[in-house]
Amino acid sequence: xxxxxxxxxxxxxxxxxxxxxxxxxxxxxxxxxxxxxxxxxxxxxxxxxxxxxxxxxxxxxxxxxxxxxxxxxxxxxxxxxxxxxxxxxxxxxxxxxxx
Length: 99
Prior knowledge:
- By secondary structure, the protein is an alpha+beta fold.
- The protein folds into two domains: 1-26, no CATH class; 31-87, Double Stranded RNA Binding Domain (2-Layer Sandwich), CATH 3.30.160.
- It contains three helices and three strands.
- A hairpin with a 7-residue loop joins strand 2 and strand 3.
- The longest helix has 22 residues, at 59-80.
- The termini are far apart.
- The relative contact order is 0.13.
């Protein structure tokens, strides 16, 4: 709590009260995430956000990594005035193909 108060004071000093209001107005987005396991660990990507991918040694680490990656990707898009793509529905299946 003390950390949050210090952060708010720093923002108020730098940007004024308007900056504090901007911090309090966080948007929440939902994205699909695919996490695959292979011999090297885990790999994750977000299909809606081109180039948004990461990896990790464990499932949990990979999940945290992709969450951070998505957050940074969205922050960059917002700062650039770009649209944030949102899917209405997602379907995923594991398909076997004989060749």
